[in-house]
What we know:
Number of strands of chain B: 10
Largest interface: A-B, 60 and 45 residues
Oligomer: heterodimer
CATH class of the largest domain in chain B: Alpha Beta
Structural class of chain A: alpha+beta
Number of helices of chain B: 9
Structural class of chain B: alpha+beta
Amino acid sequence: MADFLLEIGLEEVPARMIAGAEAELGRRVNELLTRERLLGAAAKVTTYSTPRRLAVLVEDVLASQADIEEQLTGPSWKVSFKDDAPTAAAEAFAKKAGVPVSALQKVTNAKGEYVGATVKRQGRITSELLASELPKEVLGLYWAKNMYWRAGKPERFVRPLRWLVALLDAAVVPLEIAGIKAGNASRGHRILHGESAVVIDAPKSYSEKLRGAFVAVNVTERRESIRKALDAATRTVAGARWREDEALIETVVHLTEWPTVLLGNFEPEYLALPEEVLVTVMRDHQKYFAVEGADKKLAPHFLTVLNTQVDAEGEAIIRHGNARVLRARFKDAQFFWEFDQKIPLAERVESLKNVTFQKELGSYHWKTQGNLAVAKALAATVQAAGVVLDEAALLKAVELAKTDLTAELVKEFTELQGVIGGLYAQAQGLGETVGKAIYSQYLPASIEDAIPETVEGQLLGLADRIQTIVAMFGIGSAPTGSKDPFALRRAANSIVKILAESGLPLHLSNVLDASAAEGANKDQVAAFLGERLNFYLKDVRGFAYDVVNAVLAAGADDVRDAIARAEALTAARQSDDFAAISAAFKRIKNILRQAEEKGFGLQAASGIVLSPEAQQLADAAGLLAPEVAALRKLRFYGQALEAIATLRPVVDAFFDKVMVLDPDPALRGAHLALIDQVLREFSGIADFSEIVTA
Amino acid sequence: MPISESATPLKPTALTFQELLFRLQAFWAERGCILQQPYDVEVGAGTMAPETFLRVQGPKPYRVGYAQPSRRPADGRYGENPNRLFRHTQFQLILKPPPVNVQELYLKSLEAIGIDLSKHDLKFEEDNWEGPTVGAWGVGWQVMLDGLEITQFTYFQQCGGLDLDPICSELTYGLERIAGFLQDVDSIYDIVWARDPETGAEVTYGDVRLTEELQYSVYNFESADVEKLWEHFRLYEAEAQALLAQANALLAKEDATAAEKRRFPLLSTYELALKCSNLFNLLDARGAISVTERVGMIGRIRTLAVGAAKVYAAQQVIA
């Protein structure tokens, strides 16, 4: 039993790509060793990564493949042996199989008698096998962006490959990838260790040897040490906490080989800038963690994660340098903030004419006019349904929503578009309702995000998005396949989410009716919104696909109602009675379809004597229908479904005893009318025939 | 206070602006680089100078370094903003092909300008470069020193719309930023440009360049005659187009000799494209280009640059 280590040494790999590549390398090596029967019973695969390396350690690898015996079958026995003497055919087969003619045996199978040979195939040596197979696996790793570096451009990879370590116990596996031959020499931290080689004597000593060279190869360990160091550095400020930011933690974990943390300060005067701007500069531009005081407000400190370890003098230098950069950026932001105030948002509406929204459609001024019309219509709809809102504030917010596109601060921090407009609106005395609506217009930015808090913000968000979708569909820019350059799917997802999570009395059709959509354009967008609702129920809410299909078949306009029906159906489908009902409904649909194909008509049962089972079904359905309708009206979907499930005995009896497509046209017509009625009266919550039953 | 800021962590004897340039030039000259002088036509970046844009084409190895004043008219701030300039200086380095230890050499160059890496935090963070006006892109990093981007490090993959082979690495040092960092000043204008070795008298960046920043900002934002700029653009573009047409006709001509093809003035043609690029930047600073026109203008400049690169590449392989 041996241990295997592979380390791929690289120039700094983009932080965002490392975790995926580390996992993929582990998977590929594991699959290769499994495929080649090289894993021992106690095999264990561990992966490592830093910005400069990907590594995988496999414990309990076999030194070679086990030998295998193979049974080969040759020509027919008759051809091979004449009077017990081998013919030329037998000799040729023996030669090909690599055995003496005397070792050939008679094999009898279904087709007859043949000559056969048992061949021992020697297992390959692990080291040789890895040397020939691993390069393909390594070069097959997926990278979001690749590059060439060698003359003649023989291969592409994320960054130039600079060294390779490949060991099977203490022996080097003779690999070569991208012109680099594997050895046992790794490299340490660029600065703390320098350029001398770090010799790895055995695979299992890998992480310890590198620790000695100031490289922590274990990602989990680096993540933990960064969290602890952030805590420790923050404790030097009484009552302070660092702002949790998982995405930033992941970034700095993959930007460092030997992380340490420093707390720095900035001048408290900059706290007068909006927190959003300060945090954006720190997090997005500088990769610093923000610090807050006991009052949860931003404190004038920052935390930076270093990729080195320095003495006190170094700490002072690095703290000073980072603070200097931050100060310059804050100063810029402050300058832009003050500069922007010279032209209030209200005076910027005209200049939106110079900002293109979409070449074929028009400017953001045009877009704003469109948004206003939609917002007015939406406001009228919800007000008619009794919603109280500040319509003047809503329309003001819609009018000014895009004006921050002309602000210098937004040009500097494009990711704060909307947020900055909202802050400016408040600073310019336009009131909290206007400010909040503008501020939150791009919420939810993703499907995990929260929706705008206020009704005005929700309506602005709906108006803006439906206007965009309808206009883009109108010029033939609907998303196709993986192509959605204008992020229209995301926009529609946000519409669905706002309708699902707000209390707004709006259906998808109300939103669409408020827009300028007509004719084919409107049908297309309606179908698109329906698709997005389907996605929302399945992928965001996690309902089973058949539940979603069943629920949407019975109505796909009222988002919150669809969710309630899906919840009830998910619970109800667990019962046996309900499963039987679903199966029966599927049967009903099939029979009705057959009947239609054959031209069989439905006919009222008056004057016809039905069999007892058919009559019982008619009676039970007639009795239950008003009850179910009442429960549906109250949206007591769970109870309604339970009630429907009580039909099972009569439905089962009906299908057991009654020949639906009776030769007698009158009887047949009556049966068909009966099941058609059952289907119609009980499919309002969901089309049960869509439910997949075992 | 929880943390005491050390008063002067950096030595007062930090390199002057001109010493910084000397040291970088000496460092790379010692490693086999040709030192070129700044290109004498307006460019937005060192990449646009022919020593980079054209030399990266074709198979011939080349190593060159030069300080390139780079004009970005829209970035001017009348000399009032301590961090922004209309014209900054890039020390541009092209290593074609890149040596395997290019990153290690780069770190040594930082030591050569007085940065003790054991006292600093250095990271190579992903930053891929794309220049749509010149049909170029590459992958690489921004080099961050104590949170400050000091160098752009790019492995060019394509330039002038042509795939490169060999690949080259481009290192662009931001001289003002590095000098400000070394000298620990909060304003670019306070950078010491030169210090008299005898008297110790200092000349600052502001002494040398402040007037230029002010006057060019006035010209770029206020005085430049938009109609004339358009006219200049059209004239330069027309001449460049005409020359490119001649070049392509000549290259396609079967009985043209190698000597005829080699003497075609491609370098001058490319210079006309650079003129167009600078005029475009000026028009942009004047707010004379709408968002819709912008895309078209970038396309026109790209056509000239890509056309020039193709002719240059063809000239390189003429037997």
